[in-house]
């Protein structure tokens, strides 16, 4: 079911104790966009914008129960994934989504925290690539994550976006926020048909707290826009316009 005519969006990821990223940032963004947000927790974290000091995984049984509780009741228009922890958690999530979800799936392939903590090992990346990404409507890597998925450093943002879209058969929003310092940043969207779209925006003079969780917020904005019926190009444009205000 939907609630009072609002689309339902589900975020699957880690809980951020400082509230700037993860589930908390996603739900805050969903609320700002006027969609109803549900959540499935993969892990509890003790963190602030500078460091993750502890990660407590949610059991696979609890994860499976959370997912089924949502899909048994709600008509989920769009799903966004973030921190997925390890291969076992990704396998459970992929299996349930393949069975129960027919709407948009936006995968934010969270591999390294902004604090530098590694969040996915090689086995988990392999499961992500072979189990979850084939289900995706859009993948939203930054330059570092794209390099892991491609197995080489990204030197050409457009070519990298094209290669990833061709490999996974979905739209790819390659975020340029990790590029070398410049006044303007470039995000490149390659849609499922191989068409490129460019989104340029000024680098924001944000402090530590505001910069924490930027990838989560952008992917959540895209998810909410797609839940409202926008196609990837329109959803990213709407997200980019709204992003500076969140």
From TrEMBL:
InterPro entries on file: HMP/HMP-P_kinase_dom, PM/HMP-P_kinase-1, Ribokinase-like
GO biological process, one term: thiamine diphosphate biosynthetic process
Pfam families for this protein: Phos_pyr_kin (PF08543)
Leading EC class: transferase
GO molecular function, one term: phosphomethylpyrimidine kinase activity
Start and end residues of each Pyridoxamine kinase/Phosphomethylpyrimidine kinase domain: 16-241
Record's keyword terms, sorted: Kinase, Transferase
EC number(s) from the headed UniProt entry: 2.7.1.49
Pathway: Cofactor biosynthesis; thiamine diphosphate biosynthesis
Record GO cellular component, one term: cytosol
Cross-referenced NCBIfam families: HMP-P_kinase
Protein name: hydroxymethylpyrimidine kinase
Organism: Mariprofundus erugo
């Amino acid at each position: 079911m939907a609630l009072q005519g609002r689309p339902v969006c589900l975020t699957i990821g880690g809980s951020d104790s400082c509230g700037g990223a993860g589930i908390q940032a996603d739900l805050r963004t969903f609320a700002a966009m006027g969609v109803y947000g549900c959540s499935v927790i993969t892990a509890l974290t003790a963190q602030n914008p500078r460091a993750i000091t502890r990660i407590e995984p949610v059991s696979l049984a609890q994860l499976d129960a959370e997912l089924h509780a949502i899909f048994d009741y709600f008509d989920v228009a769009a799903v966004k994934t973030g921190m997925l922890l390890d291969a076992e958690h990704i396998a459970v999530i992929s299996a349930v989504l393949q069975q129960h979800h027919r709407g948009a799936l936006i995968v934010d392939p969270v591999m390294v925290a902004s604090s530098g903590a590694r969040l996915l090992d090689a086995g988990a990346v392999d499961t992500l690539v072979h189990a979850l990404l084939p289900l995706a409507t859009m993948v939203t890597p930054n330059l570092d994550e794209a390099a892991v998925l491609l197995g080489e450093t990204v030197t050409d943002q457009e070519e990298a976006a094209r290669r990833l879209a061709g490999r996974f058969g979905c739209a790819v929003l390659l975020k340029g926020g990790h590029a070398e310092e410049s006044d303007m940043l470039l995000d490149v969207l390659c849609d499922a048909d191989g068409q490129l779209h460019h989104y340029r925006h000024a680098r924001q003079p944000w402090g530590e707290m505001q910069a924490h969780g930027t990838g989560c917020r952008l992917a959540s904005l895209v998810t909410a826009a797609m839940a409202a019926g926008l196609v990837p190009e329109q959803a990213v444009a709407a997200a980019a316009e709204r992003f500076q205000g969140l």
